[in-house]
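Sequence dictates fold. Next comes a concrete instance:
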Amino acid sequence: MSSHFVSAFNLILPECEEWFVRVFSEALGHVDDEILRETMRGFIGQEAQHSRVHGNVLDTFFAENGVDTTEFTGQMRWVFRRVLRIPSRLSARRRRKHLISQLWLIAAIEHFTAIFGDFLLNNSWEEYGAHPGLVDIYRWHGAEEVEHRCVAHDVATYFGDGPLRRFWAMLAAFPLIISVVIRGVHLINTGENSGAPKSEIAMWRALHADAELGLAPDFGRVLRSVLTFVGPGYNPQDVGSTAQAVAYLSRMHVTRVAS
């Protein structure tokens, strides 16, 4: 069940991360801080690479398991390319306002990807026979999410912080992620090779049991993190460990060079 949850979460990522790239690319023109600009360029490069790698891997995974994702990915394309696009016929002031709203929405989403990245770095998948290649791909992505977890928040606060901005961003981000993941799990469960529970109650029970074993994220922690994001004193560095993420990425680099 945990593999279906992870795959469902990743169903959203290719289109979502391409949207990150588009928004950050536009925001670059409004940022004068050269250090922040350089950090944003690195973020854009990482997100573009994540989108390509996960799109290719998941296409293969779903095809092998008899899951047709055409309708679902089409809906994700509509959400991130149509619903969340900034209308072209806007005044400069209104366009900037839309841009700031999207930057805060990205910061809220990145809060969850950092939590998920921390889980990926510390789960117990190998103990239960997970495919080493897929584990490495997910952990690589998770490590980069933890490593750059402050960037989206730093960019959003550069354009202006405030409790209302955080609240509305989280109010949009949390239902979006949960609804997409639940729908994705149901989609994967329709695959001809799926042995996962079909009912809603059974699905949540299975996820809770997997979380107890370290196979899925702790949903209680995710819920508590919603309040953390909108509360005073929030700092993305409180999620995960930069040292652990950088150490894993360094090992991955050495392994790839050696091979």
Residues 150 and 237 are 7 Å apart (CA to CA). The first helix runs from residue 2 to 11. Residues 2-258 form one domain. The mean pLDDT is 85.
